[in-house]
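Sequence in, structure out.
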Amino acid sequence: MKLNVYFGNQKAGYFESTENRGVIFVYDESYLSNENAVPLSISLPLRKEEFNQKQCMPFFSGLLPEETARKKIADYLHVSEMSTFKLLEALGGECAGLITISPEENPELQKQTYSLDSVNYELLDDGRMADFIKKMNTRPLMKADDKLRLSLAGAQEKLALANIDGKWYLPLNGAPSTHIFKPTREGSLSSLAQNEYICMKLAKNFGLPVPDVDLLTIAGRNVFVVERYDRIRLGNSIRRLHQEDFCQALGIMSNMKYQNDGGSGIADIFNAIKNFCTVPALETRKFLQYVIFNYLIGNCDSHGKNYSLLYANNKIELSPLYDIVSTVIYPELTNKLSMKIGKHYEIQKITKEDFMVLSESVGVKTSVITKIFDDFKKTYAKAFDALKADDKVSAEVLDKIHSFFEETIQLYFLGKNC
């Protein structure tokens, strides 16, 4: 059985489940003959030969949700959570970036943009919106609606909607969404939506590139809302932009996203940026800013899937920051970093010396690292103060993040253990 793989408005190839070779991917001959054709991924360069399961699975599996979210969806669909093929058959209509996957040849997928009309978007009133949020546990990704086929990578439950002139719409028939909704979790992580909102706003206050975010209350729950950086509004239509995370780009399975499990390290991502980005000097420095910011807020869950390449305006660049939270404020979560800094995984053991080891491993001067820390030190007071005026911000959560940030940045300059 084959699934058609579209890259924007072109059929790029097919993803096939074979009897004796597992799943494979093959580029379409007509796609390869186009002089403007581009690879779906750094890990899937243009060629006539098929890509075997080991070669293509990291990219295609990376389009799907992870962990508990993936299991819930698989249980709902009555398919194995291990079957990437079956899950993409059901959910591949709205993936990250420019990728769309369809079981059948679909002329509708030949268009680059989707007009903002009732054929493609259905207006949601407050009641239906609340219903979607309430039932996300039992109706993952709203799959009960057969008009909707979407896949949202990541381990957290999500909902993809389109904002059109200030109102929320349900995308239909493969039309692109513009925003992702992430309702707060229950229990000990009930402040997670609040946490992510604060960290994203804080990053913006430091001048780092981040999408616009909001914190809404729907059905009595805090809901973190983030604008998709891989979608763009063009007049009366919405267009997709291509992107891929670094697990996909480096050919690493999502279940091996942590460095200690065989996933990418900071140097691996740095070198990929240096080798493939259009302006590597700019993007590698930006990546180091991202790494240091995640360290300073205490985000131990910053791994290869939380950094991406964005393909736009004939350029390859590092995507804006996303999925950033301070994990250290939750005692029940590990303080072991997803990617080690210098010689250590444990965030409390990181010293200035570890950042010097890091600078050596990526081939930059230690002064580059120090300058980034110095810039954060000069502006962090104003960055946090600006958030205190935001009436959506929890003072308790903000204070915890501020305390950790202040302690780590001061200890860096003292050169002692953080």
